Amino acid sequence: MSGKATWIWYPDDFEIWLHQKVSLRRQERHATVPPIWKLDSCHSSVSFRKRVELEREETILLAAEGQFYVSIDYVIIHDPPDAILLRPGTYELTVWVANENGLPAIYVEGDTINSDGSWEVSYNTRKFVPAAHLQFNDASEPPSCYRLEVEPIRPVGWMASTESPYGRIYDFGKQTFGYVRLHGLQGTGTIHLYYGESLEEALSKRFCETLDTIKAESDSAVYTNPRSRAFRYVHVECEGEGASFEELTALYEYLPIEPKGTFRCSDELVNRIWDTSVYTLHLNTREFFLDGVKRDRWVWSGDVYQSVLMNFYSFFDDDVCKRTMIAVRGKDPVETHLNHIMDYSFYWFISIYDYYTYTGDTSFLAHLYPKMVSLMAFCLERRNKDGFMEGYPEDWVFVDWAEMDNRGVVSTEQLLLARSLEAMSAFASAMGDSERARTYRELHDALLPQIEERFWDERQSGLVHSWNEGKLNRHLTKYPNLFAVLFRYLSEEKRRGIAAGVLLNEGVQSITTPYMRFYELAALCECGEHDRVMEEIVSYWGGMLDLGATTFWEAYDPSQTGAEHYAMYGRPFGKSLCHAWGASPLYLLGKYYLGVRPDAPGYERYTVEPRLGGLEWLEGSVPTPRGPIDVYMDQTTIKVKASSGTGRLRIPAGKRAVASIGEVIEREGGYEIVIDRPGETYVVTYG
Amino acid sequence: MSGKATWIWYPDDFEIWLHQKVSLRRQERHATVPPIWKLDSCHSSVSFRKRVELEREETILLAAEGQFYVSIDYVIIHDPPDAILLRPGTYELTVWVANENGLPAIYVEGDTINSDGSWEVSYNTRKFVPAAHLQFNDASEPPSCYRLEVEPIRPVGWMASTESPYGRIYDFGKQTFGYVRLHGLQGTGTIHLYYGESLEEALSKRFCETLDTIKAESDSAVYTNPRSRAFRYVHVECEGEGASFEELTALYEYLPIEPKGTFRCSDELVNRIWDTSVYTLHLNTREFFLDGVKRDRWVWSGDVYQSVLMNFYSFFDDDVCKRTMIAVRGKDPVETHLNHIMDYSFYWFISIYDYYTYTGDTSFLAHLYPKMVSLMAFCLERRNKDGFMEGYPEDWVFVDWAEMDNRGVVSTEQLLLARSLEAMSAFASAMGDSERARTYRELHDALLPQIEERFWDERQSGLVHSWNEGKLNRHLTKYPNLFAVLFRYLSEEKRRGIAAGVLLNEGVQSITTPYMRFYELAALCECGEHDRVMEEIVSYWGGMLDLGATTFWEAYDPSQTGAEHYAMYGRPFGKSLCHAWGASPLYLLGKYYLGVRPDAPGYERYTVEPRLGGLEWLEGSVPTPRGPIDVYMDQTTIKVKASSGTGRLRIPAGKRAVASIGEVIEREGGYEIVIDRPGETYVVTYG
Prior knowledge:
Two copies of one chain form a homodimer.
Chain A: H1 13-23, E1 27-28, E2 31-32, E3 45-54, E4 58-65, E5 67-72, E6 75-76, E7 83-86, E8 89-98, E9 105-109, E10 120-122, E11 129-130, E12 149-153, E13 161-163, E14 168-187, E15 189-196, H2 199-203, E16 211-216, E17 220-224, E18 229-238, E19 243-244, E20 247-254, E21 262-265, H3 268-284, H4 301-311, H5 318-329, H6 342-359, H7 362-381, E22 409-410, H8 411-430, H9 434-455, E23 456-457, E24 462-463, E25 466-468, E26 471-473, H10 478-486, H11 492-503, H12 514-526, H13 530-546, H14 585-593, E27 596-598, E28 605-608, E29 617-622, E30 629-634, E31 637-642, E32 646-652, E33 657-659, E34 664-667, E35 670-675, E36 681-686
Parallel strand pairs in A: 28-32
Antiparallel strand pairs in A: 1-2, 3-8, 3-10, 4-7, 4-9, 5-6, 5-8, 10-11, 12-20, 13-14, 14-17, 14-18, 14-19, 14-20, 15-16, 15-18, 21-29, 22-25, 23-24, 25-26, 27-28, 29-30, 30-31, 31-36, 32-35, 33-36, 34-35
């Protein structure tokens, strides 16, 4: 046997199947809470084909997930289908598989015939496409065996095990995720587990968000709870005297990825913020990018975009990006916006735009391209007569959790549409689809001046909120303005006007969600406000650490006290204390302080523009597909070392800049040095 | 509790789920053979909603297939979800259900709140439709429990149990279907069951089409084989001395419907043909109309149409018609023709046209209407520049198993399209969709003269086969011509020309499949050739009975001998000996000899035009939604009694016709009597 075989299936079906399973794991107390959106299933019946030319007879071994049979030039082989002797000759080998309860997949292993990406597959529409495969290379480990890694963990610290009014409290020392285990379980009876991201939550039998009830029926050396939970504390109550156990531990479940990005600086609090952000993102980076591990445990496209960006300065794991993009998009036909939210359809395009820029992964672009085209067609179909996107009654026009009237044409949505069209034009070009590239580009080019004309308010020096029933709603919010800055739309002059008149204007409604603060702080960095943003990072994220946070939260209001912090959605412990969007310092510190960003897909060209933002020194490494870019900066020296590609190091204006290698050029009110010697450290003194 | 609750689900999902299960039951020896077409799955995650106004508090009991929770005005209820106390008030009650492995469905029972068709459901697209329900009115019997009836049967006759070279043969006396049972199973070892629709097949361990292997591991009073099989004979071999049993019986599985139509006549052979046809159709009328019980056990739209027609003269079960129409159509979007076959898309429209005419079931029409419109849009989209349907490379243009070149524009397909457009126009009118009604009518009216102009060959007095690459293929086949006769297209004169020049012309390629002979014999009856068709019925179907058939076959060639009859598709026992389309005498005898047919939907108006076709007398009852129409005829007397509606009794020209009730009018070369007195027997003497 050649051993080159791998499990294969219909493209996207693995991700769609896995997304369905993962999405149905959200529980709130006794309720299983499926997503509020359409949940696709994988195709249940598919056929795989391969043109074979056999010089000598060969026995192939087959394994399948589902019921299956083999045909040769469409004649059914009636043998037991797991080992088949093939005669010499040239013919079409087809394996038909149906799986009512999961992903139909096959594994074929022979001397010369092995299932791999050269096979084609159809969901029996007679249209065949290349089969998909991942890392399932063992006949006995089909894709349905996909599991994250687990590792035993134990309660730690002074509260590792303490009595509670009803039983015992176990503290794992920090927020974690996994399966609780009871060792030495004896007797019969009921054991209740109440989980807490906070101690208060674990102690609240009535209001803790998640709980489990174990019916002990026989002695067990180790009982492992079948459901994974998010917790730091576990509060255990044994009902009556029936059942008991000796020890409680857990299996920590995680995606086996290591951070490739690093960051260290002169401020230890900022270093702790970085580390806690890495851990927060890691816990939420699982089968897919989840919004939070306690709640919702769902895949929301708007949250995904932020995780994608953070990922590029930390784990740089493109597999989870791809799994997530496929899953959240689902199957055609498009019947609703992603997660029902208009903005979230746009964030999907924009996520892929950034994914492509950071990774240069053209093949994934090609893979998703048809579904991008169909989602964009769905969006464009919903424009009003002026060419703007307005919410249909069934659409959710979200933007942010804040006071605003999202009826009619909301300016933020139009900016996201413009960026999506820009992305689609770039994708179409990369795909050689010049006709669509032109169409999208023309739509984009026509839309931008239209937005400006309709929404720019010279008096307020910003884009105003919306247009409804023939009237302009002059409500000034930060949202459209920060996207105009981030996407570099409008003129340089107007962007400066926005910075002063909107972003730094305390009279404008402030943003209270970490979700939109992500973009706000990024936009402030784009406006050169690094010192101010660093102060913000220290006070906001540092504030959570001061309150004992071990991961960052879904929301944080410094004016609250005590257990008030844990309440949300009208429930005392409704807030997620481990929320992906809480980890945004990863992106801010990587992109705007280490200052590394790609200028061409896959970092073929890039910029390094480090900023201290009030720190004494900083250093770190930013992962790229071509190897790391290492940056060090203090008040007199900058060091940069890259593995590949061509970069430009940009240094703000000053009296001087002297480089150990390369030429220092004065440009755009600063200095610039071209970095084109892989592996060599460029040392620049400046000041 | 009011007891008015019933299980509810998303419309069509029950049928789609059941179709998936049933379609995956086809086995050939060791191979499970899924259908060659796309197999849809039901939605896995849906939400049900109901606006409730409660005057006093009420506890509702919930049962669900899948994981579920309840929300009130979109706030999650965290209680264990199976019994919920609702407070007084007016609010929206929503039940969210997800089922990864089957049909999501719920059952809600309270004092005033009960799940029923007044609830709405969405697959979480935010578009809600009324929930579907059938006869599942018991909380403990959800739709997943749907089973046909079973009844114990035993081997009979002289061969009830006989030794074979390897074991024993059991004969159930006639073709049957169900689960073999072994009584008094003892010991451990392997028992092989080889099934035969013929004795030869059961004796052929190597070539029998279906078999089972039982691994006996413990003693069992009654072991029931888990898979249903089609068989008359079971050949049992106990491997070695390990396992044995005392008795073999079976559970006959059937749809619990009784024939409502009857037929008796002076020829006992014709009576046996009728009875055997009823049994053949009954065996194939199950969860859906299947093509054959041994093979394919699939739902083919072309076969379905014939079963639908036969059903109207025998069981008149509209439920199986509806289940089948929904299942074979599947979900939107339409990606291929039904079963991949262009003709089979058209037969679906035409089946519904006849279904509607016979039943008058407007509500089912309304239910399917959106999917009719989308399938017709798919078809019309595929017309060529001349407005004709041509096969795309992935389409199967079938017509019949016979020598013909189906490239280009095949005339038969255009006639089926015309009939489908006629049907769609009628449906649109019935739905009050006058715009589409006009569009379809105009397309139909334009297409008919185009067909005639392109394909009518005056010299051959018929429609010729096809048009390909700018050339007319003058090959003369019966197919387009018999449909022109059946659909009453072309002029009366041309139809007479077709009868003489094509249908009765022995020089024209004869039809050899029972599938197309169905239409051929019907068309001959339309041309008044009742005597000739009766001779054909007696010789063709009588021929199978002479060979010992207990059900009618997929194909029959009188020139073959012995076991040659059982071979097909290159396999010695490949032929199905119990095939729905073999039962076509039901339709022929009912429609053209008893002579009863509806003239307006649901038999509001109808015609009775009995013909002896060479018999001395005949009598029978034809079911209608308004009660039976009874007919008797001999060489001097006709008697008709109807329960409702207005009919016209038509009697061929002769010297006289005298009626006991009503007035005899001379019309169109015959006599006519209006039947408008329900329950009274009209007696007419003629001659």
